[in-house]
Specification:
By secondary structure, the chain is α/β, with parallel strands linked by helices. Helices cover 39% and strands 16% of the residues. The strands form 3 sheets. Strands 4-10-9-8-7-5-6 form a 7-stranded mixed beta sheet, sandwiched between helices. The protein binds 4'-deoxy-4'-aminopyridoxal-5'-phosphate.
């Protein structure tokens, strides 16, 4: 059955569509923290962050089904679901972020964010983080060095300025007393070079918590300092919260940028927003929305559809109930990180454990003294976990960071399974 599916995929969908794992999973159902395959084997999902409330959450499914049965149309009609959801969503942000644009994917959200930044600043240049991924459109390919840097015929264009990841594990400034300032200086250098070449910044775009770049937490005050520098030169600050948004960062924070004590001008949202239903958004200030509206109508057939808005509301309804559970969720994230840190102390091959909430990265190295990345070992762990019914993934500039992003409803027991799997690592490596 699996082989048949794979050969038909190749035939009808072409070779560029990849799958997870050497031995891909033919999935049939999802329930809470589990994905279940066609043989009824359950896999603990530690990596799919759109299903942040758990797979196929019944309240969200019911809301979608009821709305689809009643009405699903576009924003050229007036309906309460749109304004109600926009109002509920903006309430989750600092006051100045007050206007929403609804789209269908994280890529669309980031693409629109760049357009808004350009319309507001009349500038064309962007500062991006090395190792970042912001989406797959023609514009976003250029600002996503993680996937597209010089690959597939997409060289970095001249209007994109890359700055190094604030890597506190092995980066240049790891032992500085003020790493935020040192890393922010890279942004200052990019801005200075821009000026010398007669250019101005349209925007600085960065995730609230870095994902593809290696799950590095941004040093405290980094975002604050960078935002100040960018704004001094007339640029706007975009926080891509497609991965880090909606409470993933833990610590009682809804958005990654809150960990940096900074307020962006534009926020982009996606993945967990509809718990798997295509729903994404740009949230920005009245001022930027006005610049964008100048001579340009915004319309998106499916963005802001009645069904998407109802799903978004259902997700927030559950979140509000779960907010009472916030303390439990925080405790699970802290417990997991603490136990992973104990493993790091025992195992020579675990160089670093970082992140917060249920957004954790575990970096594999050849040994602690050289800190040389161990991408082969990372792939081995991901594949071995899959064979034992636990779904993980890898990321980072050297592809040696195990990413851990389970649904937020995770309890302590599945954490134990992950820890048991990693415990005998040194023995496995001897085999
Ligand atoms: N931004 C970030 C940080 C992402 O991780 C992704 C997807 N992996 C996107 C944007 C693009 O989102 P989508 O795949 O929904 O277009």
């Amino acid at each position: 059955e699996l082989e048949n599916q794979i050969s038909r995929r190749k035939a009808f969908l072409g070779p560029s569509l990849s799958t997870h794992y050497h031995n891909p999973i033919l999935v049939e159902r999802g329930r809470g923290t589990f994905l279940i395959d066609f043989r009824d084997q359950a896999f603990l999902d530690f990596v799919n962050n759109p299903a942040s409330l758990g797979h196929c959450h019944p309240h969200v499914v019911r809301a979608a089904a009821e709305q689809l049965a009643q009405l699903n149309t576009n924003t050229r009609y007036v309906y309460a679901e749109l304004t109600d959801y926009a109002e509920q969503l903006t309430r989750l942000f600092p006051e100045k972020l007050h206007v929403c644009f609804f789209v269908n994917s994280g890529s669309e959200a980031n693409d629109l964010a760049l357009r808004i930044a350009r319309a507001h600043t009349k500038a064309q240049d962007f500062i991006v983080m090395e190792g970042a991924y912001h989406g797959h459109t023609e514009e976003l390919i250029k600002i996503s060095p993680y996937k597209f840097d010089g690959k597939g015929g997409f060289p970095q264009p001249a209007n994109v300025w890359k700055v190094p990841v604030p890597d506190m594990f092995r980066g240049d400034h790891r032992s500085d007393s003020n790493p935020a300032r040192s890393y922010a200086l890279h942004v200052k250098t990019a801005l200075d070079k821009m000026k010398t070449s007669g250019k101005r910044p349209a925007a600085f775009i960065c995730e609230g918590m870095l994902s593809t770049a290696g799950y590095h937490p941004l040093p405290p005050r980094y975002l604050k300092q960078v935002y100040e520098l960018v704004r001094e030169e007339g640029g706007v600050c975009i926080s891509d919260e497609v991965q880090s948004g909606f409470g993933r960062a833990g610590e009682g924070k809804m958005w990654g940028f809150e960990l940096g004590d900074a307020v962006p001008d534009i926020v982009t949202l996606g993945k967990p927003m509809g718990n798997g239903f295509p729903l994404a958004a740009v949230v920005t200030t009245k001022e930027l929305a006005a610049s964008f509206a100048n001579g340009m109508e915004y319309f998106n057939t499916f963005g802001g559809s009645t069904a998407a808005m109802r799903v978004g509301q259902a997700v927030l309804e559950i979140r509000r109930k779960r907010d009472r559970e916030e303390e439990r969720r925080r405790a699970v994230g802290r417990h997991l990180k603490k136990e992973l840190n104990k493993l790091r102390d025992r195992h020579e091959c675990i160089g670093d454990v970082r992140g917060s909430g249920l957004f954790l990265g575990l970096e594999f190295v050849r040994d602690k003294s050289s800190c040389l990345p161990a991408p082969g070992l990372t792939t081995y762990v991901v594949e071995a976990s899959r064979c034992r019914g636990l779904l993980l993934g890898s990321d980072g500039i050297h592809n040696n960071v195990l990413k851990i992003k389970p649904p937020l409803c995770l309890s302590r027991f599945p954490c134990l399974l992950l820890l048991l799997l990693l415990l005998p690592l040194p023995l496995l490596l001897l085999l």
